[in-house]
Design brief:
homodimer; 210 residues; mainly alpha; Tetracycline Repressor, domain 2; globular; DNA-binding (chains A, B); DNA-binding transcription factor activity (chains A, B); TetR/AcrR family transcriptional regulator (chains A, B)
């Protein structure tokens, strides 16, 4: 074990000063985290989400897999960071699903509309959809991530068929596209709460019990 | 009035052999229709749907506006031809809205899913959405066409607020994207009638009476 000469990289908590040095592997440096992110983007684009591994990303970045784990915890965490996604589904979904089942539709609709109202949160998602429209590899990567990290997790958490979750996702996805990408009126300008009132019963029908 | 030397252009009914010759305007030729389409694409992309005119398209193509009318009837008709859209909304919407109001959700869901099941019908729509994702002018053009030719027409026809129509459109648009572009399972492979059963009550809630 050696101390990294450069110390804190400024990007994360700051506790990352020790790691194993192995032949051909560099210690944590000012941009180790950034280099892992760059490596991750390459690996995810090449292999998709399912076949990408933390070990493969570490190899591409020339660092120890433990360092990747340290920075990003899980493969989902790396994906979220690499694509600048606004939230990690594994952390947000349990919070949204928590609470009365008869209000899950309202919670999901309000969460998605509130999150996407922030341009800083929305832009990376729009950018991802944009590149998916023209790149088959990006499509595969998004499809696998969506399926594993969002759709399956919600369907299992609520004990509903995946198709119902996909119908709910399609409703919210379509609204976000009309509101922010196509900017059709009145959906582009209407108040979030008016949209929640209109959409929540739909999402409730898909995600509610029974 | 003169006869076009080249006769039928092979693209339409075949009755277009006579037209007025004016200075600087060419008579109908083997690809007059194709030239109008090329001109229309340019004008729609430059001016959007609302500000484009048949007169402006005719001028760009170097033909008489009456010839444009003859081939395409309306500005919507030219747009549909220029962008290879599978159907002209002005012709299809009345048919879909006709029939019992309490089944309009089912009719709309089945129509959209059946139409988009045909790759020849779907591809131009996907291509259009694709270019909208990366080109602001295409976005404006689609937004205007959607608003005038689809959303307003249905909202007026059914006497519902436009926002309800947009919610319905968003649901179907999202499902088509998940099914055919992102190809997420199970929605990508499931039978159309199963999807109609799942989605029709949603569309009915938005488009139904009251």
């Amino acid at each position: 074990m050696i101390r990294s000469e450069t110390g804190d990289d400024g990007a994360e908590g700051g506790g990352v000063t020790a790691e194993r040095r192995r032949p051909g592997r560099r210690p944590g440096s000012a941009d180790t985290r950034g280099e892992i992110v760059v490596a991750a983007r390459k690996i995810f684009a090449e292999k998709g989400f399912d076949k990408a591994t933390i070990r493969g990303i570490a190899r591409e970045a020339g660092v120890d897999p433990a360092l990747v784990h340290h920075y990003f915890d899980t493969k989902e965490g790396i994906f979220v960071a690499a694509l600048h996604l606004p939230v990690d589904p594994s952390k947000v979904i349990p919070l949204v699903l928590e609470g009365p089942r008869e209000e899950v539709g309202e919670r999901v609709a309000r969460f998605i509309l509130t999150m996407t109202a922030d341009p800083m949160a929305r832009e990376p998602i729009v950018a991802l959809v944009r590149s998916a429209m023209t790149n088959e590899r990006v499509v595969a990567m998004i499809r696998e991530f969506m399926t594993r990290a969002i759709l399956e997790r919600v369907a299992v958490g609520l004990d509903i068929p995946p198709l119902r979750m996909e119908a709910a996702f399609a409703q919210m996805f379509g609204v976000v596209l009309l509101r922010y990408v196509l900017q059709v009126e009145p959906v582009a300008s209407v108040d979030i709460e008016e949209l929640v009132g209109l959409l929540a019963p739909t999402i409730q029908r898909y995600l509610g019990a029974d």
